[in-house]
Structures are given as structure tokens and as C-alpha cells.
Q: What sequence folds into this?
């Protein structure tokens, strides 16, 4: 081990204070999560509204009116699912452009671009007169999500001191859950505003986008991004400002050394194909895939639809979705408090057990007592709501926030934006797949769809036990020495 490696592997946390200015930066940047969460929560409630279905999907509305229609199939329509999923297909493509923008222009301008696209998408969706306008609006929202989900977690990880990095990064996921809850509350409030309540729901998406736009003008660029673009003096000055101390030379030198090493890697996407890049790349992509295959977005997108399926009326299903939204927010706060104390692996493993039990129990109840026609008893429907909340609780303090945190903190600076782009695009692709397929899967698999997701959760637990290293308390630019080279599996990939 040479002297530089020894310094990195033995260094302590760098000095810092929690300043009011940097707290404002974190808060404003996390509006990207609010923007993303609002969209996740809004689509399920809107697609369940009668006025929306009558205008854009009259066949779905007619099918729903049939009293003896199959409980599991009444929302099985590819165009209805495309309304939700088209956003994530656009986000998949544009996350790679966002990676280039992060490298060339910085994290701050990329966040600004995200807010502008999202504002345009919200305006077009709310004013849509036909399905084509609706889908184009969703695609513009997807561009905003692609840019925001790439830039915001990177911004939060790079600006946070190491001892608070987990909690700060989870601000993004906390705002996602607040956005979902806000969307459910808006849907519930406008569900009786006929015939344009759905337009209000879609238009309000512009509010968090406006907050992100204002935030993008106020926040500081990250020191890492400034040093990457040869703005050394500004980077040093910014680091002092966000740390609240003058003694930042050690941290600045590490950032500078990492960026100098990054410049030697002329093609970051090509660097990702090297053997030493496989550990963070595999971990980053796998966590994003697993996050979606828990079934969480199937539940969050279609919570009102799901609750209607098990016997709730329209208002009751929207109210139940609000309840799950509250649970989601509160449980994410638990993660903010616990992630830098308990560590990443403990939270992920505990949640696997909790989510597995929930999915299996829901599947058993629906399989035994929800026929293709009819509904559950009030007690059984209440049990399903409780189990959904129990599931959401486990996800919200583990796989939800940590699925974004871990990939944002494990890549070296030379492949950080490119590697995180692969992680984001994997998330968007599997979100698209689940959103596009869930209602059709529920139609054909019926209650077995919950056993399908439970099987994935079991695999995820094994992955955490054997392949996921603990990254709690490790400086972001010291992962190679202190994590990958010491892991029994991944050390074989390191030079």
C-alpha cells in the first residue's frame, strides 16, 4: 500500500459544521424528490377518476360499470397503463443525457433543466384534450424526472459531510414520500370536482417543479463538480462555505486528487466496462431493479385501483391511499434517523422480512376470499389495508431511500455521473415495466401476483447477505480502499 492509499484508508471524518445555508441547499435540492413523488402518487388516483376515464378511456369506464366484471381485470387496458408508464420510458432515455449534463455543466444547471421540463409537462398534461396530448405531457414530465433523479441524489451526496451523508441523501426519498402523500391528498380533495378534478390534480404537479426551479437558482454548485471543471478557487471557497469551517484543506485535496484521477479517464462510460468498475455498477443496477421488484410502485401507482378491487368505493380507496401515504412519510423519517447509526445492511434485511410477510399474507387473503366477482368482507379489506401499510412501512425505511443512497455514494468520481446514470435508467426501465404490466399481470395472475413479488423479495435478502457491503461512515472518495478491496467477493475485481 503506497502513502496515498494509506492516507485514504486511515483518514478520519473531515471537520464540518451543520450550517443554515447548507441546510437550505439540501432542502431546496430535495424538491426534486417532491416532484418525482407527486407524479408517482398522482397517476393512480387520476386513472381511477370517472371523469378522466370517460374523457380518455371510455371503454375502461364501461367495463368498470359491469357489476359482474372480473375484479382483477376491470382496469386491464394498455393505453391506460401507458398514461402512467410513458413517463418512465422517457426518464430512462434522458437519464443518460443528464449524466453528460452533470459532467459538462454541473449538478446545479442539470437540476434547473429538470424543473423546466417538469413545468412544461405539468402544463400540457393538465390542459390535454386527447390521449396524444396527455402522453406527450407525460413524456415531458419523464424528461424532467430523468434529469432530476440523476442530478439531485448526486448533489446531495457530494455536498453532505460524511457523517451525515446517509441522512442528507435520504432527504430525496423523504420528499418523494411527501410528494406521494401530497398527491393522494389532492386526489381525494378534487375527486368530487366534476368534470375537471383530474385537471387540477395534474396541474398541481407544477408546484413542486416551481419550488425546484427556485431552488436551482439559490443552491451552490458542489465542490466536486467545480473542481472537475477546473474551478479550483471557487471549489475551495464553496467547500469552506458549506462546511462552515476554514480547515477544509484535507478534504479539498482528496476531492482534487479524485478529480485529477477522473480526468485521466477520458471516457467514463468506457471506464465502467473495466473489471474494477463492476462492483459498484452491479450493486447500483441491482438495487434499482430490486427496488421496483418489491412491488412498491405497483402499490403506489395503483393504490386506489387496488383498494377498489378489494371492495372499497372510489372515495374509500382514495382515503386508503392517503393513509398509506402518511405511513410512507413517517417511516422514511425513521430511515433519516437510523441509516447512519444502524447502517445500510441492517435496514435492508429487516425490511426484506417485513415485506415478504406482507406480500404473502395479502396473496393468501385474496386467493382464499376474493373471487373474480364480489368483494372482501370489511374485516378482510381492512386487513389488506393494514398489510399494505405494513409493507410500505418496511420499504420506506429501507429499499426506498437506500436504493438511491447506495449507488450515489459508491462510484468513484471518474465514473460517478455515468455509473449513477446506469442506476437511474435501470430504475426507470423497471418502473416502466411494472407500471405498464401490473394491471395486466393482476388480471392474469390474480392473487398470485403478490406471491410473485414475495419471491423477488426473498432473492433480495440473499443478495444483501452475500453481496452488499456496508458503506456507513466511509468517505465517498475512499470506497475502493475501505469497501471494495476488503469485501470477500468484490475484492477479486479490484486492481
A:
Amino acid at each position: 500500500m503506497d502513502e496515498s492509499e494509506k492516507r485514504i484508508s486511515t483518514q478520519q471524518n473531515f471537520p464540518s459544521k451543520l450550517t443554515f445555508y447548507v441546510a437550505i441547499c439540501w432542502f431546496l435540492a430535495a424538491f426534486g424528490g417532491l416532484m418525482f413523488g407527486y407524479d408517482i402518487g398522482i397517476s393512480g388516483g387520476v386513472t381511477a377518476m370517472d371523469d378522466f376515464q370517460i374523457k380518455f378511456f371510455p371503454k375502461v369506464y364501461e367495463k368498470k360499470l359491469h357489476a359482474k366484471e372480473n375484479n382483477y381485470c376491470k382496469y386491464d387496458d394498455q393505453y391506460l397503463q401507458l398514461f402512467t408508464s410513458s413517463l418512465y420510458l422517457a426518464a430512462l432515455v434522458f437519464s443518460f443525457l443528464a449524466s453528460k449534463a452533470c459532467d459538462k455543466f454541473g449538478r446545479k444547471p442539470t437540476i434547473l433543466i429538470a424543473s423546466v421540463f417538469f413545468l412544461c409537462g405539468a402544463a400540457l398534461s393538465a390542459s390535454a384534450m386527447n390521449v396524444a396530448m396527455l402522453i406527450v405531457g407525460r413524456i415531458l414530465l419523464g424528461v424532467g424526472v430523468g434529469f432530476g433523479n440523476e442530478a439531485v441524489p448526486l448533489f446531495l451526496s457530494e455536498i453532505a459531510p460524511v457523517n451525515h451523508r446517509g441522512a442528507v441523501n435520504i432527504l430525496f426519498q423523504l420528499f418523494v414520500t411527501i410528494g406521494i402523500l401530497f398527491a393522494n391528498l389532492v386526489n381525494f380533495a378534487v375527486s368530487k370536482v366534476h368534470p375537471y378534478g383530474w385537471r387540477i390534480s395534474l396541474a398541481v404537479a407544477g408546484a413542486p417543479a416551481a419550488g425546484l426551479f427556485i431552488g436551482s437558482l439559490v443552491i451552490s454548485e458542489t465542490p466536486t463538480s467545480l473542481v472537475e471543471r477546473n474551478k479550483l478557487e471557487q471549489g475551495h471557497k464553496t467547500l469552506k462555505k458549506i462546511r462552515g469551517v476554514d480547515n477544509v484543506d484535507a478534504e479539498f485535496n482528496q476531492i482534487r486528487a479524485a478529480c485529477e484521477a477522473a480526468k485521466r479517464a477520458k471516457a467514463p462510460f468506457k471506464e465502467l466496462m473495466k473489471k474494477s468498475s463492476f462492483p459498484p455498477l452491479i450493486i447500483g443496477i441491482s438495487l434499482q431493479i430490486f427496488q421496483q421488484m418489491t412491488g412498491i410502485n405497483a402499490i403506489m401507482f395503483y393504490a386506489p385501483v387496488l383498494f377498489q378491487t378489494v371492495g372499497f368505493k372510489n372515495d374509500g380507496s382514495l382515503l386508503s391511499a392517503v393513509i398509506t401515504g402518511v405511513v410512507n412519510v413517517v417511516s422514511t423519517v425513521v430511515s433519516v434517523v437510523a441509516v447512519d447509526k444502524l447502517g445500510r445492511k441492517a435496514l435492508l434485511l429487516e425490511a426484506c422480512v417485513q415485506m415478504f410477510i406482507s406480500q404473502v399474507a395479502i396473496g393468501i387473503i385474496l386467493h382464499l376470499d376474493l373471487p373474480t366477482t364480489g368483494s372482501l368482507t370489511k374485516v378482510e379489506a381492512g386487513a389488506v389495508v393494514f398489510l399494505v401499510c405494513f409493507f410500505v412501512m418496511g420499504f420506506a425505511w429501507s429499499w426506498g431511500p437506500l436504493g438511491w443512497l447506495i449507488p450515489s455514494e459508491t462510484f468513484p468520481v471518474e465514473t460517478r455521473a455515468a455509473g449513477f446514470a446506469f442506476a437511474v435508467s435501470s430504475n426507470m426501465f423497471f418502473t416502466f415495466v411494472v407500471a405498464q404490466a401490473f394491471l395486466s399481470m393482476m388480471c392474469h395472475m390474480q392473487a398470485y401476483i403478490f406471491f410473485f413479488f414475495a419471491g423477488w423479495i426473498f432473492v433480495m435478502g440473499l443478495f444483501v447477505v452475500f453481496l452488499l457491503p456496508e458503506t456507513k461512515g466511509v468517505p465517498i472518495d475512499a470506497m475502493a480502499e475501505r469497501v471494495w478491496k476488503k469485501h470477500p467477493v468484490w475484492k477479486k475485481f479490484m486492481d
